[in-house]
Design goal:
Layout (H helix, E strand, L loop, with lengths): L3 H8 L31 E4 L5 E4 L2 E4 L8 E6 L5 E6 L2 E7 L6
Antiparallel strand pairs: 1-4, 2-3, 4-5, 5-6
């Protein structure tokens, strides 16, 4: 008998291994994650409700996944380019001459 999850995974093309029961990870997970901190002097912006940040009076879309979180903006070698970092991951490369409408 297939569970609803198994059917959903099969429709997505995910291989389901039967006969194995779920085992929670033995790694501890903190009740509260530590605050996100960026290097001193980093340009930090809070991602707004619709997933965008404001830079130099223009809006750039990052995605609603990041809404409410802070991101760091750093210049690139390109004259009008910046990278956007969430924690230690680069999540976007923006061209400041091409703001979102």
């Amino acid at each position: 008998m297939h569970t609803a999850l198994t059917v959903w995974l099969l429709r997505l093309g995910v291989r389901v291994i039967h006969g194995r029961s779920y085992q929670p990870s033995p790694r501890p997970f903190p009740a509260e994650l530590p605050p996100i901190e960026y290097a001193p002097g980093a340009v930090v912006r809070r991602v707004q409700a619709k997933g965008a940040i404001a830079l130099h009076g223009q809006y750039y879309q990052l995605g609603r996944t990041f809404q409410g979180y802070s991101v760091a903006v750093q210049p690139t070698l390109a004259p009008d380019g910046v990278t956007v970092q969430f924690c230690h991951e680069t999540i976007a490369e923006l061209d400041l001459t091409q703001p979102d409408a």
